[in-house]
Write a structure and sequence with these properties.
Shape: elongated
Structural class: mainly beta
Helix content: 10-25%
Number of domains: 2
Radius of gyration: 23 Å
Order of helices and strands: EEHEEHEEEEEEHEEEEHH
Number of strands: 14
Number of helices: 5
Length: 311
């Protein structure tokens, strides 16, 4: 296996975006907005056990990156145009691990086909393009990888090349979002009952309106609490517009205090707090809680019931 000269970056981005073609964002390949300092990591171990952190996940993804035949490690400073990764789909908590190589050809169709032929089923090219700017010219593409397990939220490989006097320099980035396991202390205690509120109208631009509240008995409240407790943590991120789908107040079987829940349409996040404190954001992308809520609210809560169309 080639020795890899790698750079690890923790990147935080304020909002979730979309993958942009290189031609649209010429500054992306110049490293704009990236941290000035980075920690070098060596000793990646392919075929390791399930990753226990974003850094381990990124190492495994980078080790899986197919390299063109004849690629050799590039240990000199990165060309200016490859000093940072291409911009890509990210929320906060993105981990970026990169490696540089000297290759014979640019990141054109032949390399794209080679990469896809050597990646697992389900890998797809998200975007490709070229960039021209003061820091140089580059071409590249982004490959989305399939993930497994509740911790692996996103994985992708970014390939970009630029021509130098010694040949083409290839930069490969592994970008991942890895979500840690929930703490048992975050679970909603076994409830004795709950109040579930749906809404007649939900809106991206205005507050949800027409609240419709129903009390839940022991069986329904326990089923709903168990469904919420089974959700993984959500990745940090925001939506420019959002709709409140439902609220739930769980009352414990013993002791004081209560758990409060808010379910949101974008990006299907469930926020849980205990007596107004310690908010935990959970991922309901599979819509298990949304579907259960819809089965429990009456027809008057038409806005909440309509949420299943987005699942």
């Amino acid at each position: 296996m080639l020795a890899r000269w790698m750079s690890m970056r923790k990147v935080s981005v304020a909002a979730v975006g979309v993958v942009m073609a290189l031609a649209v964002l010429p500054a992306a390949l110049s490293g704009s907005g990236q941290p000035a300092a980075a920690t070098r990591i060596t000793g990646a171990t392919p075929g390791a056990a399930a990753p226990a952190s974003g850094e381990q996940f990124a190492i495994q993804v980078l080790d899986s990156a197919p390299l063109p035949p004849g690629a050799q490690p590039w240990t000199a400073a990165a060309p200016a145009v490859l000093d940072g990764p291409m911009l890509s789909v990210v929320g906060s908590a993105l981990t970026d691990l990169d490696a540089l190589y000297l290759v014979d050809e640019p990141a054109g169709p032949a390399l794209t086909q080679y990469v896809l032929a050597h990646l697992p089923a389900g890998a797809t090219v998200q975007t490709s393009g070229s960039s021209t700017g003061p820091s140089g010219d580059a071409t590249g593409f982004v490959v989305s990888l399939p993930t497994s397990g509740a911790n692996e939220s996103m994985a992708q490989l970014l390939y970009a090349t630029t021509e130098t006097s010694e040949g083409y320099v290839l930069r490969v980035d592994a970008q991942v979002v890895w979500v840690p396991d929930r703490s048992p202390a975050d679970a909603i205690p076994a409830p004795a009952g709950a109040l579930l509120t749906g809404y007649t109208t939900i809106s991206d631009m205005n507050s949800s309106s027409g609240p419709v509240t129903v009390p839940l008995g022991d069986a329904d409240s326990v089923e709903l609490a168990d469904a919420i407790n089974a959700l993984p943590l959500a990745t940090p991120g925001t939506c420019m517009e959002n709709s409140l789908l439902y609220t739930i107040t769980f009352y414990p079987t013993s002791g004081s205090g209560h758990s409060e829940v808010q379910g949101w349409l974008c990006p299907k996040v469930v926020d849980v707090s205990s007596s107004g404190a310690q908010v935990t954001s959970l991922n309901d992308s599979g819509c298990s809680v949304i579907r259960l809520v819809v089965s429990l609210v009456p027809e008057q809560a038409a806005g909440t019931r309509s949420a299943v169309q987005y699942c």
